[in-house]
Amino acid sequence: MKMHAKNRNVAIIGIGQTSFSSHKEDQNQVEMVQEAVINALADAGLKIGDIDCIVHGNMELFEMQFAPDLWHSLGTGAYGKDEYRITTGGTTGATLVCAADNLVASGLYGTVLAIGMEKLQEGNTTGGITNMADPLWFRNLQTGALTGTTAQEMIDEFGEERAKRAAMRYRIMMDKHAMLNPRAHRRFGLEYSQMEDLMANSPPLVGELRLIHMCSQSDGACAMIFTSEEKVKQGTKNPPVWIRDHIQVHREETIPNLFGFNKPEMTHHCAARTLFARNGIQDPVAYFDVFEMYDPSAWWAVDWLREFFLLTGDEHLRMLEAGDFDLDGTIPINPSGGVIASNPIGATAMLRPAEAALQIRGDAGGHQIKKEVRHALASGFGGTFWTVLMILEKELNWQEVNHD
Amino acid sequence: MTMQEDHKDCFVLEGKMALPNQYFAGRLGSRFLIAIRDRKKIMGLKCNQCGKTFVPPREYCEKCWTKIADNWVELGTEGELVNFTVVRYGDRHLPKKPPYILGQIRLDGADTPLVHIVEGIDPREVESGIRVKAVFAAKTTNTIMDIDHFEPV
Amino acid sequence: MATKRVAICAVAQHKNDSDLWHKRFQGMLLDVLEELQAQTGFTFDEETGVNTIVSCSDDFFDARTISDNGVADVLGAQYRGEEKMAQEGLNAVGYAQAVILSGYADLVLVMGHCKESQSESRRIIANMGFDPFYGRAVGLDNLNAAALQARAYMKKAGLTEEHLAGIVVRARQFAARNPYANAREIVEAGKVIASPQLCDPIRQLHAYPVSDGAVGMLLASEERAAEFTDRPVWIAGFANCMDSYFLGDRDLTANFALKQAAGRAYRKAGIADPRKEIDLVEVMDAYAYQQPLWIEGLGLCGDGEGARFLDQGGQEKYRVNLSGGMLAGNPVIIAGLYRAAEAALQLKGEAGERQVPDLHRAVAHSTTGAAGQFHSVLILER
Amino acid sequence: MTEYFGTTVADIFATMPKRFKPEEAKEVDIAIGYEATGEGGGKWKATIKHGTLKVETVDGDLTGCKTTIHTDAETFVGVTLGKIGALDALSSQKLRVAGDPKFLMLLLPKIFTPYAAPEKKPVAVTARDIITTIAERFRPEKAEGVAMTIGYDLTGEGGGRWTIVIRDGKCAVRGGLADPLTVKMTMEAKTYTGMMVGTIEAVTAFTSGMVKIEGDMAAAGATAKFFRKYVVPGATEAEELISLRVTNAIEQRFATGPVMGRWFAGLREKKFLANRCPKCGRTQIPPREICAWCRVRVHEFVEVGPKGVVTHFDIVYFASPDPLTGAVRDTPYATAYVVFDGSTEREAVTMDLKKEDIPRLKEGARVRPVWAEVTTGSYRDLIGVALDEQEESL
Lengths: 404, 153, 382, 394
Description:
heterotetramer; B: mainly beta; three-stranded antiparallel β-sheet; 11 strands; 9% helix; C: alpha/beta; Peroxisomal Thiolase, Chain A, domain 1; nine-stranded mixed β-sheet; 13 helices
């Protein structure tokens, strides 16, 4: 999939998050959304009147709130403004970033605020996910989106001990990152010394997928503000972070697709291969300084690192084992703690570029990577293995790369 | 698209989409609803910037983008019916059996009319401008229906 | 350098029907997709074909979490980019324009579907669009909210039962010429006035019938449009606008959001005086009273002059809803997308029996939410 | 006992019999062991049998318990009160379940009403304590131009007689009843304290005759606004946060269309009808309108199976309850990904595997369909698949 020259460059100039938690009884949906919007405006040093357009997204059937942007407009600040509501399931948050990028790049809007939210406590998450299945056929067979097939494939490929240790090492690494992020939902204080215990005793869900491996169910919202290069030149409160390119790869629904093992080429690999090729990135591991990956489970995360970085064989396991993905490693993964720590679904995929942008700015606080972050990768995941992948940059220095 | 299709294998599968939910009114909404439930009082929120008093509650005046969450004002439990319709169709989501009057009631002290049900007057005789008062519900639902309906003063 | 203009190259409509019991969404969309491909010969080639699809559907109406997932194959989205406009479909056209202007794509497929007949009641779904404590609890839905607006507006504009009946009678007359319309039977004014009150002052025949349908469009950059059509229709402007959520916060007859949206769209299109520069209008009239109300909002007559607009032949002057409008039946999620499709067909000169001559510029309008909380305006040019 | 979130572990067990719903537990026969470690912890055993409940503390081992729950006391209280997510606690291993964790998630909410922390015991406040704070709670801006004397005759324990004098924007409290009084209110001292701390509704007290008023009735009603609300010293009132539980249900009519309709018609005849892409030859099961890869309409149906091979499988240990019925499948159960004979590579379909066959399930296993007794042309026709013994024995 080719891309033509972007009409104009687009920067992230504001980021606002709520904290993430299993319960927010003291806020209704609007108030939770508004908290993120106000934080983003404060971060950008803007007033609501500076925003030209709002882009909203979440998943209707979790909260069972039809066209929720209409009510949420009280908190998004959409009154009197242009507004779009765009959704793609789990990838929604990342799709909103793509949409905001498109809207600003098009020249139709100057400054756009995107908001992703979910209040999973208000709904039934598993029921909502089961509702994804075809009502004629699969809905009676399916419970949520759990599978142990990836674990089994990794065990088959790398041996039981090594595969299980890899998944648990990733899981504990995520918790260590989450412990540094005060907004994260699940912060357990796990230690690598607990690896054996967790591998044996964490309640099994499906096959070798255990409760400890799975992502959380959270309440929370994330808002981001985007503007054009022309506006950035007039000055921004915080350093701008540039959206260099983004790509979306969807696929048909089948149950094997939902669980990802029906490859010829995994969507993640297709997205990464195409995106890196058209941006002239030969060696993604060397190029990127951080990767915020949508990691719904530790098993999937480990498996997907191979796909996203276009690695082969056990390269990804060797890197994991060598600590390359740690916060002080060569290419840190999810300094925020990732989806395993915090998962307000409609905001989850937006948190990836949001956290990646904070790393580039050097504003991530306790979970800031120590070395300079110039190039960041962020991914979203949803549907039947749908992928969004985007490249964020500290400087506008990729222009010499030939696009078209 | 005039393709003639064979319908012999087509049928309709009866089903249902149903999910349990638990909604939270939030701290502000809870104070508003508890005032109705426990104290039979209807509270509004006033924006000091534009001077308007709003009901139902919201944290911000969206036009001024000013926080009004703590600026409670007690409204009257009476007001003026400023607009109405007569609901004559039946549907599961409706709180009353048709026909009934659904109105917009501007409570004394409020700038924004509240949508609620009006009873105690024949739908053929109702007209805008009449004074109505809140009749509080005997059984609480922790919603705006803790005002059961309004009726002419 | 990215393109400066975006064209609608082709449109395809599925016939609207009150109960497409024999078809599921996939079948409806595939019909639309095949017709678009037949018209234009576009492909999904990675280099030269469609790589981005903007779909439009709704999880509630489809009763499926991620409604676009179930139809990804018939959208052509296999290993391609796809984004779902989870609003009324006219916004999908506006957004698709931005995707092309941004430089990310030079071809975008817009595909919308909705079957109102699948759910037991579209009003129950509308009720779930309100907040749980103040709106849902009191039974608000799109019909009773519209009825509140109708009463206020009829009083302000001097709109009578006869006016409303006239709007419905005319809509059916045009619908009879539109092979894609749902309610195509001619009705007499007397029958409209005698039809039972649903929610005063809205009568049964003032409301659009339950409808199922699907719409597709191919949009292209200025540079590529000629590959797919020799009669492109250009997007001259698009804008939308959000009004306050609570009904009580709004003046239901003031058209705040529509005036804002129309003003911004006109500015983008370089329209100084819409009354002089617009030749055809398709408005989303779910209920008869809305047609003149939205006409006021579009600035084609003054505030409160909707009845006079009707009396003075405004509908014919501005060729309002020659398709029969939403009153002839479109599903709510894509009723505006149908408006855009019909406006585009007229500008292309492909509107069949309902074609009128001498068209240069058309407006397509849509609205979402209770009593028009949100409005969208698309300006198309030949 | 050590309190967590204002509650002790012992409180929770003590209220168990009161919260038990025998009618929901008629079919239940189980002993659940609880071990809460740390301060305020201990061991308990709850035996539920045919609608009866026995709760006891245990000193030694939790033997004879089908399911045991191990946790620290704080987590136990937190999860019970909903302050800590049960899934979070399970994930972090702060809460461990030996046996089937589904009892935590499903059974317990069904047979017990939720634990509610007891109302805080009212702090012992006397009428005198409250009366003496009146002058400092006075709001002169609300009493402009007001001149009145209010007498309180508070009877019973902790009672007494006081007069409040409001004049010239000032307020004073004096012992005894002055004469004349604008209004005199007589009530039990505990009624007065109840009204002031909010446990007795003032309107109720006035209308029910708990308060006797002599003199100016209107003045009695007006006095409240002259004073700020009385706050019990050191009280941190937990504010009630309202929630609304509702099941949102919408009836649906799902159309099969001709393609899925054909599939169901096949099931009625106990046949698997896939459809074959005219371009790539891929067989789709269940069939779809289009081949997503080739983007062409698929017309041709071919019969595949009835036997097939398992390419992957999932053994599920943790079934989520059906959100509406609460019904939960027995675990473990297995979902097999089956490629039917005659299908193209990788065109797997998910099928339930017969429970007894789970121990022998492996990749590459051959399976046969298990049909319902009567097939009607719906998804219910196919119960699942079973290992194919015939081929196993070969």
